[in-house]
Amino acid sequence: MQFLHCPKSLWLARHKPEMIPQAAPDLGQELRRDQGYVVEAAIETWLAEVSGDATLDKQVVFELPSGAFARTDVLRRQTDGSVDLIEIKSSHSPSTSHLFDLAFQANLAQALGHQISGLFVAHINGDHTINNGTAPFILNDQTEAVRDLMPDVGRQIPLALEFLDQSQIDESSCTCVTLTRGNHCDSFAYLNPSVPKHSIYTLPGIKAGKIAQYREDGIVDLADVPLDGLSARQAKVVWSAQNQRPFIDREIIQSFVDALEFPLAFYDYEATQSPLPDLPDVNAGMQIPFQFSLHVLQANGRLDHHEYLAQAWQSPGPLIDALRSALPATGSVVSWNKGYENGRNRAMGGLYPQHADFLQDVTDRTVDLQDIFKLGYVDVAFDGRTSIKNVLPVMVPDLTYEGMPVANGTAAMAAFARMITLPQGAERDQLRADMLAYCGLDSFAMVRIYERVLEVLSESAGHQPS
Ligand code: SF4
User: Fold this and answer.
1) Quick one: pLDDT at residue 465?
2) Radius of gyration in angstroms for the set of CA atoms belonging to the chain, rounded to a whole number
3) In angstroms, rounded to a whole number, what is the distance separating the alpha carbons of residues 75 and 82?
4) CATH ID of 2-165, from 3.90.320.10, 2.40.50.1070, 1.10.10.60, 3.90.190.20
5) Which residue, 47, 124, 150, 428, could crosslink 422 as a Cys pair with Cβ 3.0–4.6 Å?
6) Domain limits of the chain?
7) SS3 377
8) How far is CA 385 from the centre of its chain?
9) Considering the chain, what is the average pLDDT of its residues?
10) Separation between Cα atoms, residue 421 and residue 202, nearest integer Å
11) Span from the CA of 5 to the centroid of ligand 1 (angstroms)
12) Who contacts 129 (Cβ-Cβ below 8 Å, separation ≥6)?
């Protein structure tokens, strides 16, 4: 029930959808939607098998004369005339919002005269693999929890309808001004036009309590934030905002660079998951790499590129073999946000013990280039973040992901899902080339950022916050 979460965003979607910034078509969203359909169809089939004499109706609509409208994924009619409402989810457990959705549907179903016997969330069994003999899905009985929510949700329904019927609302601010950036939706800027680009919300790791304190003091712009009482990283972001230049700590950067050992192996994985388990020992949701790009920089400046892209969804043995033959046996391995690459190595090492030592060695040698940008080189232009997508345009403006047909990790997942369904031919070749270009840029961007960092070290006199 979006109304319970945020009435204003619901009102805007109804009355002024043009004011909600529309993200560019997202291949990742399309992939998640398509995978959701696959899971939904599989769970419906499974429900039919485990529901005995009950009959299942799909996508049943409940609509009251007041205009309140809900759609339930599955209405299971028991032989005694009562019904179960079943929400189907691609998750591995029910969430609070799933329970609120069920409470909303149950209120309407009850008002229309249905006698409800059970309220369920049907979801993936996260422990299931194709070879461990467990059930693929779980019919999670949430009847009691949802019944507890129903009175409150029922009271909100007329309020929601009344709110939505208004022709005008206060659009000068919204309640998320008291919350951290992770809670803001796409309408935040429209509803809070007085919040500047570099604001207290862009301070990394800021808590809601601190936001409340700043607001009480009338502070929203980073330019007005006092340096005392901040974490080291926050202080550097504020210093950068107030001095309109990056904060550079030569000592931190130098010690990172000094710890590197040549050859430097800059590498990046692209990984994905199948909506339903289909590889031995791999459960739903386990991300398995299908692609890597590796740039190897020698001490003499020579740069070599190696890459691998699977032709099918398969166990990653061939990818690991390709990495083993391309990766230097010594030297530092460099990734960006190393927890991701290390996590994939751990997962693959657990699945394939014959590769475990090699993958552990890669992990042990891996350093995170992103770390430089947490405390060593902090620029307010990174917008309080350290993702490579935020850092690259500032550090190496001539290199960009903009305009690439595949331009982020979720798009790469979607492109791979599509590519493996295509027959050999021009379309498949083009998609493959787009994917190689994207992953190649990820590792090449690290090389260029590293080189830029060396330039900074040689040119900077260093800046410290006063
Ligand atoms: S930013 Fe928060 S309060 Fe504002 S419209 Fe979005 S969800 Fe609602």
Assistant:
1) 46
2) 26
3) 10
4) 3.90.320.10
5) 428
6) 2-165, 175-244, 254-459
7) strand
8) 14
9) 94
10) 41
11) 9
12) 277, 280, 281, 282, 283
The residue type of 300 is: N
Look at residues 140, 160, 200 and name the one whose alpha carbon lies nearest to residue 5.
160
Number of Cβ within 10 Å of residue 36's Cβ equals 14
Q: Which residues line ligand 1 (CB under 6 A)?
A: 6, 8-9, 174-176, 184-185, 187-188, 191
Smallest CA separation from ligand 1 atom 5, residue? 9
pLDDT for res 330: 97
Q: Where are the beta strands (DSSP E) in 223-325?
A: 247-248, 264-272, 288-297, 303-309
Secondary structure E strands in 322-420: 333-335, 366-368, 377-378
Pick the atom of ligand 1 nearest to 175's CA. Answer: 3
CATH architecture of 254-459: 2-Layer Sandwich (3.30)
Closest CA to 375 of 258, 246, 224, 197: 246
The model's pLDDT over 356-401, given as tens digits with 9 standing for 90+, comes to: 999 999 999 999 999 999 999 999 999 999 999 999 999 999 999 9
CA-nearest of 376, 374, 402, 372 to 389 is 402
| Residue 1 confidence (pLDDT) | 64
pLDDT of 456 over the 80 cut:
yes
pLDDT of residue 466: 39
Residues in the chain: 466
Q: Which of 5, 183, 201 to mutate to test the pocket of ligand 1 (most atoms within 8 A of CB)?
A: 183
Cα(126)–Cα(123) distance, integer angstroms: 9
Number of neighbouring beta carbons within 10 Å of residue 174: 22
Q: How far is CA 462 from CA 224, 251, 424, 434, 457, in A?
A: 23, 9, 55, 40, 9
Protein residue with its CA nearest to atom 8 in ligand 1: 6
Q: Which atom of ligand 1 is nearest to the CA of 186?
A: 6
| Distance between CA atoms of residues 223 and 230, nearest Å | 14
Indicate the helix (H) or strand (E) that contains 159. helix 143-165
| pLDDT 10s digits, 324-368 | 999 999 999 999 999 999 999 999 999 999 999 999 999 999 999
The confidence score (pLDDT) of residue 4 equals 78
pLDDT in tens, 150-184: 999 999 999 999 999 999 999 988 999 999 999 99
Taking the C-alpha atoms of residue 384 and residue 231, their distance in angstroms, rounded to an integer, is 13
Q: Dump pLDDT digits (tens) for 9-61.
A: 889 988 988 887 766 666 777 888 889 999 999 999 999 999 999 999 999 99
Cα distances from 283 to residues 34, 131, 164, 287, 311, in angstroms, run: 19, 10, 42, 9, 21
User: Residue 201 Cα, ligand 1 centroid: separation in angstroms?
Assistant: 14
